[in-house]
Amino acid sequence: MIRTLIVDDHAAVRAGLMSILRREPGLVPLGAVSSAEEALRDARRLEPHVALIDYQLPDGDGLTLCRDLKQLRNPPRVVVYSAFARPALAVAAKLAGADGMLDKGVEVDDLFDSVRAVGRGETALPPLAPEMIARCTARLDPDDVSIFGMVMSGTPMEDIASVLAVEEQQVEDRLRGMLRDLLSETGPADGANDSRPTPPPPARQQSDP
Amino acid sequence: MAGGNRSGVSLRTRVFIANGGVFVTVGLILALTPWTVTVPNDLEDATVLVSGLTATVLVNLLVLGRAFGPLERLTQAMERFQPLRTDGRVPVYGNEREIVQLTKAFNGMLDRIEGERRDSVQRSLAAQERERKRVAQELHDEVGQSLTALLLQIEGLSRSAPAEMSEELGQLRDTARDTLNQIRDVARRLRPEVLDDLGLDKAIATLCQRLGEQSGLTIDCRIEPVLPQLRPEAELVAYRVAQEALTNALRHSGADRVEVTLEREGDDVVLTVDDDGRGLDGAGHGSGIQGMRERALLIGAELGIDGRDGGGTEITLRVDGRPWTVAVAPDSLEAH
């Protein structure tokens, strides 16, 4: 029996998930909530095995919620279930310590399989392309890159803290900062959207000595 | 390039001096020589009169011709002038003060017009990208979520519904799933997240693959493995140019095959979209090309359009690929 908590701000999605999970043998939906705050409250009280959380929440994002859930005494396994299709989300999910990530367009049977796998202690994250990790690295504060690399290679938090000789809380804070950096809306459209004129010959590093 | 040693004398003064000189000379000749002009004209008087007038007219013609020659060349240069090209400035002809000033004023006006134009193009393209992003996000967040919910509910229903309904429910589910995929496709076209997350090369490869699948045409996509990373603005411009050029090729040109290349040439990154369609003698000449030019101008890139009549179209975008300082980027990278 895998006890599952559903977190999604869309009422019809909550209803749909409840109805299919209820009918699926071996899976027990404990309830469905619409915000990060309720999710933390219910997770503390109900101690689900798996939390199935949307990325977009009215009071935050699913990955920050994932970090918060992982701080609980009996942390649930976390599956990020999102319609937010950015490839970088997979990297961010791994960084946030999520155990699985699913696109909302997947077949229902795949959803069940992933929840079961994660409930058993396996992971269900999509493969991360090296160039995606490279691009994400470029978006981070250079000071954070070493932590990022360790998390990506699966080093536990306490080991990272001891390698860097800092408190675990500091690593946690840096991790949350990185999540913000990764998921802030980057892109040229934003670059062009302020009134700051960009001169046509781009600013360049002086290569001359 | 000021007007040289004659620049102090204005055109008006020089015409005045030349004309005045001729009149004074004629006057002196009449006063000091035996030549005279009397009322009952005889042949001698007529000769004096005609040669005097001819001399006046010829000297005038010569002086004015020399003075206004540069003006004509300036006019021709202005007529040849192409907007949307940063290199088009009129050279200074001659060294007449008025002409030099006029040329400078004209070039100055071009600078101001282009500056204004660049700003307004930048504003409108930025507004367009913002709007596309907003629509894409809403499609994802609102419509996509509702369709997901619909799908889940159909799934739930089909698991408890009587067997004779399962086929119809299956069809319903397939329709909902197709619609969800279409919505996502539209959102992706509006705002290519893959560009931000995986870079220009992967984004263009994905674009070629998707458009190829949708249209059934052969899109031959050749991307050099290691390319310099462009500024985010430049990546977006290159992506939009590729998107527009491919859409034109697929929709209007009647091409059978399209070749897309992205490669390094010296310091530049060059995007080429080459089709074997009917060239630019028609539909392709619309606002799409104007849009590509405007976007290229915005990042200081060079856009080449080679529309061979009946022999396909080749669109080339050449972007400076030298390293750029991150220092210009951070606040432009941050979202609202």
Structural class call of chain B reads alpha+beta
Number of helices of chain B: 9
Helix content of chain A: 40-55%
Q: Uncertain runs of chain A with pLDDT below 50, 5 residues or more?
A: 186-209
Distance between the termini of chain A: 67 Å
Tell me the total number of β-strands of chain B.
Answer: 5
Largest sheet of chain B: 5 strands, mixed
Largest sheet of chain A: 5 strands, parallel
Indicate the overall shape of chain B: rod-shaped
Gyration radius from CA atoms of chain A, angstroms? 19 Å
Q: Give unreliable regions of chain B as ranges.
A: 1-6, 327-336
Question: How would you classify the helix and strand content of chain A by structural class?
Answer: alpha/beta
**Could you tell me the mean pLDDT of chain B?**
81
Straight-line N-to-C gap of chain B? 48 Å
Rg of chain B is 34 Å
Helix content of chain B: 55-70%
What strand line-up does the widest sheet of chain B have? Answer: 1-2-3-5-4
* Helix-strand string of chain A: EHEHEEEHEHEHHHHHH
Order of strands across the biggest sheet of chain A? Answer: 2-1-3-6-7
Report the strand count of chain A.
7
